[in-house]
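Our working data are protein records whose layout never changes between entries. The record below serves as our worked example for the rest of this section:
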Amino acid sequence: MKNVIFLFSFLILSCSCSYARSSLQPKTGIAEVNGTKLYYELAGAGECIVFIHGNIGDCRHWDNQIDFFAKKYQVLRYDVRGYGQSAMPVKGEKYSDHGDLRALLDYLDIEKVHIVGFSMGSSIAVNFALEYPKMTSSLVPVGPWVNGYDSPAASDFLREFRSISSIVNEKGVKVAAEEHVEFEYVNSHIMSRKVKKRIIDIAYDYTFWHFINRESIRIEPDAVNLIENIEMPALIFTSEYDIQVCREVADLLKEKILHSTKVDIKDATHFMFMDKPKEFNNALSEFIVNLKY
């Protein structure tokens, strides 16, 4: 009898472990939505957290977050149109990144999300929260940007950022990727070699399509004048060595969003979630756990 009970218990434990492994193993796919194709990875179960990558990169930016959060939540990361394994935009064809995300969520039957966006991805997250507030449980801009923001620091940054297209044409993608990391993340010397190499390796795979094809038309709201309309809880991440304009935007979001908290990670760069993954993950986890619905 004891042997039967032991065997039964062993089978239950084995099934439970197999289920845990399978739920954490990401499901990957290509969603044909909005007239394009979006690559995505989906893992875990429960409330959904969607992670949106930054510019000159892809969903691999979030490698340090996926396994951590998939233990307690359903986690979605994907490549924005024109990045990674997603399809390229069509020249002259209007589209919106936040509209693409809405279509992807509909495709996956996901009704509501905590939306985490880094840099360029943070502007997509803000746009999504403004356009689809009922689908947004919380908003988490990281190294944030918001469409329409203007300041001397913003003007200087955008001028330098747009000059990348000439570097691509003159010197090629790899040189552009390396020089971009150096000029945009001016404090990258405090990064570990491993993190810096990972960022550049991911950037090597970007085609720089959006810089070469400046005539691409993204439909974006004038979000800077709509921030006060954001009512869901927000957690705003910046860092000690974040880009100056992103630190400015972080302060603006904290000032304008009623239910918001700002976290400033010490000894970290714009890529704070890669520099300090433990601090970042713990802060984000605590924020979501303590949300009052």
About this structure: The mean pLDDT is 87. The first helix runs from residue 2 to 24. The beta strands are 27-33, 36-43, 48-52, 74-78, 94-95, 113-118, 136-142, 217-218, 234-241, 260-269. The chain is about 45% helix and 20% strand.
